[in-house]
Structures are given as C-alpha cells and as structure tokens.
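User: Can you write out an input/output pair for a complex, sequences first and structure second?

Assistant: Here is one pair. Inputs:
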Amino acid sequence: MTAHPTTADSPAPLATRQRERARVDAVRHSRRVRRLKIVLPSVAAVIVAVIAGMVVISTFAPAIDLSALSFGGDGIVMANPRLSGHDKQNRSYEVTADRAVQSLANPKVITMEKIGARVELGDGSWATFKAVEGVFDGSSETLSLTDRITIDSSLGYQATLNGAEINLKDGVVTSADPFSLTSEKGTIEAGRLEVKDDGQTILFGDGIKMTLNPAAGNKLPKEVSSQLKDAAKTKRPRAEGAAAPAASGGEQGTGQ
Amino acid sequence: QTFTESFTGLGVNSNDPIQIEARELEVRDKERVAIFRGDVNVRQQNAVLKAQNLKVFYTGGPGAKGGAQDISKLEAGGKVYVSSGDQVATGDKAVFDLKAEQLTVSGNVVLSKGPNVIQGEVLEIDMKTGQAKFRSPSRIRMLIQPKSLGKEKTPPGN
C-alpha cells in the first residue's frame, strides 16, 4: 500500500479564485439576459355571419425576440442599442431603442426608451412594433411596456395597446387596457387582452366589439393566409437557438 | 310553407358588414375554434342572432388547400334568438352548418312571424332558400291568426 505523497497543490492564490467566481457570475448573467424574449399577442379577427357571409379567422403572432441586450462592461447607460439576430427558422429580427439604462440600485432592471422592433415573418412579410417605454426585470423575467404600443404588419394589420405585461418565462402577454386591431377585413376592440401558450390561445375580455366586412374578400389570397398560419404557428424562437454560442456571435449590441 | 320566403334575410351570401358584440372572446388556434361568451349579439342588416355563447369552428390548417381559413360550423347556445325582419325563431341551441348552408334550431323551438306562431322541437332552415320546416316526427303546435291568412297565397301547414 503505497501512501501517495499528497501532491496537494498549493491552494490557488486567493485572486484567481475570486476572478473565477466573477467570470461564472458574468456568464450566468448573460445567459439569463439571453433568455429575454417577447411574445407579442397574436390578434384574431373572428366572425361568422350567423345570418350570412363566410368569414376568415386569422391569427397573427409576431414573435419578437429581444434576445441578448448586451451592455458594455462598464457602461450603465447605452445610447441607441441595436440588436439583431435571427430565430431558429432563420427569420431575422432587429430591436432598437433610444436608450437603455441599467439601474444602479438593481442591475437586473433595465429600462428602455422608445423601443422599436421589426420582425420577419417568413415569405417576406414582416411586423413592426413600437413601444414608448419598457422595463425589463431580470429576476422575474418580465418585460412591462407602458404607454402606447403600436403594431404594424405587412399583412395589413395594425394594432394598438396601451401597456402590456410580458412574462418571458412562460410566454404570457397581458394587457389590462383597451386594445384595438384593425385590418381591411375588420376591426376588434376589447377591454383586456391575454395571450398564452405562445400565441395559441388568445383571450379578449371585458367586452369585445367586432366589425367584419365579408365584402373585403373572405378568402385570403393563398400566400397571405399561409403566412398567417406560419406566423400563428411560430413558436417563441428559443433565445438559445437565436443566440450564437459565444456572446459575441449572432447578436451584437453596438452602443456608441 | 307560408313562412318560406320571409326568411330570405337569412341568405348566406350577403356581403354587408357584420357586427358582433360579446363579453369575452377566446381563440384557441390549435383546436381551430373561437368562443364568444356572454350576451353574444351578432347583427347584419336586419338579421340578428343573440345567444349566451357562440362557438365558431374554422378550418384552414396550414395544409388546407387554398390555405384560406374558412368558417365551417357555428354553434350558438343559451337562449338563442334568431330573427330576420318580422320572423323570429328562438330555442335552446342553434347550429349553422355553413358548408350545407343549413341552420338548425333545437330545444323547444318557437318560430313566429307576425301573429303566427309554431312550436316544435327541431326547426331546420335552408339558408339558401329561407325554407323553414320542422323536422318530423316532432310534436307541432300551431297558432295561426285567421285574418293573417288573407294575404297568404296557400294555407299554412307542413
């Protein structure tokens, strides 16, 4: 039985251990931020004329992936951060904001002003999304958008919400304030909106009013409706899928 | 059937705007169904449907030919009231099969046109012709105002 000489190496100097822990924290932080995702509610126009008319239901769920909002190591304020990337189906998105501020008190909270996003929806259609202000809370992984949010899309839909709470973990979007969607096929107004299961379930509450004009062509041209189906079945693009492994990969947050 | 022509308002192909109001709407895309709940009120021109809930089934999955999503069926439940002009049908349930263009109202159905009233179990209305008839062997009770017969060409009876 040989006693192995204990080759205990000398305890790593205190400095390297501290540096190691800082690195681990940083990686964990960026991975958590990378999971930041927004699911915008899909809006459904649904009608049937009980008495007459064939109407089309279409749901449309732009998926906007804020993905990694990378900040300069030291910078607390980032002027017009721009972030682009593409999701698993290789559909590109781009998010910009006038300013992004990481709060000193709690580094997990990031406030963004004048957010703009543009998302490709496949076969060339796109959706743009504007919000006046949004606060991302890293600990609860929620993004709350205040004031007006406008959504526009090449599919002919415009929607306005006033404020929305987006829970990024389970992809639930709720907007407690009146919401309206217009398209040439009709309009919907509701007091409250909730989107669940990645846009598969949409609840309009607190009284809805809907007008539909079947005359506006109740049969969508083939390619448009396939995009709608496409958009509707867009799963929330996994941030991991979107983010290139290395932090500096697909996304680059360039700040001046 | 004297009530026939008066149901023309229920023709399927009118292109006028449709107004729908309800307390709540839930769209379940996976199951291709949209459910309106709470004092559902649908209006188009002079045709009206009221019910407590209204389920809209649509087809048009990603693979559907033509790709367009179309409404295939519609079920209204809870104190259903369907009216067009001075024609009114009420019942517990109404099913609109848009493919067959047929409206079926069931569950103590009352069909009235002006003073004339017919009660029965299942009322079938062909939405193309507006032809309304009670499905036999349901027990029918009919109340016809004699003076209203003057205008009708043929005496009522089915």
